[in-house]
Amino acid sequence: MWLLLQVIVLTEVKGFVVADGSRVAPLCPKGYFPCGNLTKCLPRAFHCDGVDDCGNGADEDGCGDTSGWPTIFGTVHGNVRRVTLTQECFLSQYPQHCSCRENELECIQADLKAVPKVSSNVTVLSLKKNKIHSLPVKVFSKYTELKKIYLQHNCITHISRRAFFGLYNLQILYLSHNCITALRPGIFKDLHQLTWLILDDNPITRVSPRSFTGLNSLFFLSMVSNQLEVLPERLCAQMPLLNWMDLANNEIKYLTNSTFLTCDSLTVLFLPRNQIEFVPEKTFSSLKNLGELDLSSNMITELPAHIFSNLHLLQKLNLSSNPLLYVHKNQFGSLKQLQSLDLERIEIPNINTGMFQPLKNLSHIYLKSFRYCSYVPHVRICMPSTDGLSSSEDLLANRILRVSVWVIAFITSVGNVLVIAVRSLIKAENTTHAMSIKILCCADCLMGVYLFFVGVFDIKYRGQYQKYALLWMESIPCRLLGFLATLSTEVSVLLLTFLTLEKFLVIVFPFSNLRLGKRQTAVALASIWGLGLLIAAVPFTSEEYFGNFYGKNGVCFPLHYDQAEDFGSRGYSLGIFLGVNLLAFLIIVSSYAAMFCSIQKTALQTSEVRSHIGKEVAVANRFFFIVFSDAICWIPVFVVKILSLLQVEVPGTITSWIVVFFLPVNSALNPILYTLTTSFFKDQLKELLHKHRRKSVFKVKKKSLSTSIVWTDDSSLKLGVLNRIALGDSIMKPGSP
Ligand SMILES: *[C@@H]1O[C@H](CO)[C@@H](O)[C@H](O)[C@H]1NC(C)=O
Ligand SMILES: *[C@@H]1O[C@H](CO)[C@@H](O)[C@H](O)[C@H]1NC(C)=O
Ligand SMILES: *[C@@H]1O[C@H](CO)[C@@H](O)[C@H](O)[C@H]1NC(C)=O
Ligand SMILES: *[C@@H]1O[C@H](CO)[C@@H](O)[C@H](O)[C@H]1NC(C)=O
Ligand SMILES: *[C@@H]1O[C@H](CO)[C@@H](O)[C@H](O)[C@H]1NC(C)=O
Q: Are 292 and 248 in contact (CB under 8 A)?
């Protein structure tokens, strides 16, 4: 315990000052960050927590993820001037329900069925929310001054190939929320000045390769929420200045090497919510100016290793919500400018620190699990900032858990220590058996110690767990606690199996000489402890293979159910819980089944045999409760493990409930069962009963409740026989422990 506390003291924060007279930005250890130009280092979690931890506000600077288009857009459209128009109208001809200011005309919801006739020098024409269903030949050709046309919400189905002819000055064209199904070749042929083309929310399924001919000034193209399935090859060939392309929420299935071949100027490319499955290696190779790429919510299962290798200026990359199966070791190696990387909901089984090391400028990263954040210690903000088990404030998020951990720690350790003491004081007749029980209590007591320390660390981090979570999980105390818990459970399980098998041999083969002597028992017990120690210590041997086996959650218990965890530790955890423990559990259950059958038979035989094995049966009776508590304890763990094998998502909170409530059931109940069901205690009870017969009837009933609960199923007949045998034995031999 002292070792644990010392280690905690040693893992304090230390900053470094380079000692050559001048002040240099401090070199901080991994996972820590310098406070601006101060020599202070803070853990990553102190960043952006709303508190000025540095003193100069450096830790609260630049918290929002503004990388990508917000900054790119800022540099391109830095100084947009808004011109205030006078009330005067310069147009001599326009429909009734329209409003006119200078050369700008607005006809919103004016029930227009066609493009109205207006003065030829109109510059802005807004026809939103009318009933225009088609744009005939040269409908705008008279209005050569037009700079902006707004045609949203009209259900335009038909656009003549020559509808926009003659609009040499048009800069902005909005056609969103219409019923356009296809873009014909050459439709925008004359729009040499067009910079914005908005085609959102149309049922467009087809775009001809030459649809965009003539758009040689186009800067911004948005085709969000159409039904586009195929993009033409060399999409940008006709619009060499295209800077921004938004194709979100279409039905695009694949991209090819040449889709974006000539998009040299493209800085922002949005392709989220499509059905892209395959992206060939050269798809983005000519996008040398790309600053933001969004491929989120697609069906991409595999990305070629060098797909991003030419994107030297990329600032923001969003790959979230793709069923990506594998991330190459050097997938992000060339993204030196990347500031934000979104890999939410992506499992990275081969995750390692080297994968993100080249991303020197990365400040925001979004990963699938909190645990992954430990692989990107140099990134300032890593999401999620906590796992499901603990809240961002507390190690044990739930109030009930927080109190229970202490109660159960107390019951477990005090109960076991008491049993060890009592057993040592009373001279048991079966000394080897008493020795086994004491050893079992030692193992169970460790569970109490473990819970006690979980409670201590919960208090230590109360209210600010988020800041220390990763440090805590990486720390040596956490690993030692995990080791302790594993040691306790494994030794306990192995001992119970051993004791059960011992009883099994005695009861099922009462006349054989299979009983172990004192020395043999001692050797068996020692080897069980050795085996337990080995099982718990193996994960320390290879950091590479097991990673941080114990530090995967706040309570440091290696109940790995996360699909994404490394193969080594997941396999080992599976081996322990569904291998060793399930096997032990099955051995115990089947041994008891065999014992009950045997007892039922012998109960019908002579009283001589009965007296011979009666003593052993009393012990077997006690052991039944241990099996019962064993079942309560282990079945939830088996269920969680099997669910994780079936790839069912298990919420993180499950771990803490299992660790605090189910695992210690065994350790907490064993001492109670041992003291309450021994014949010594029964005798004491009987004496009490005799003295205060009237008063204590209810109390005794309560105390024997643990017995009656179990006896209420239809196996009660058989068990009743067993019980009578056990009682008969203690009556025959009063005073025996
Ligand atoms: C840190 O920088 C701020 C301005 O950014 C300056 O006012 C301050 O004096 C600097 N502190 C040190 C210790 O250099
Ligand atoms: C064109 O606009 C000018 C003002 O800019 C106006 O004086 C003139 O009458 C307009 N011409 C026509 C044909 O409407
Ligand atoms: C795309 O480029 C890669 C590498 O140059 C090549 O192997 C592949 O065949 C190309 N695919 C297509 C569809 O052109
Ligand atoms: C990435 O895309 C998803 C879904 O399209 C979105 O919710 C998320 O906010 C994006 N990430 C970033 C960092 O913008
Ligand atoms: C990181 O980004 C900053 C701008 O935010 C830039 O000045 C710097 O050169 C970048 N660093 C690297 C290594 O590219």
A: no
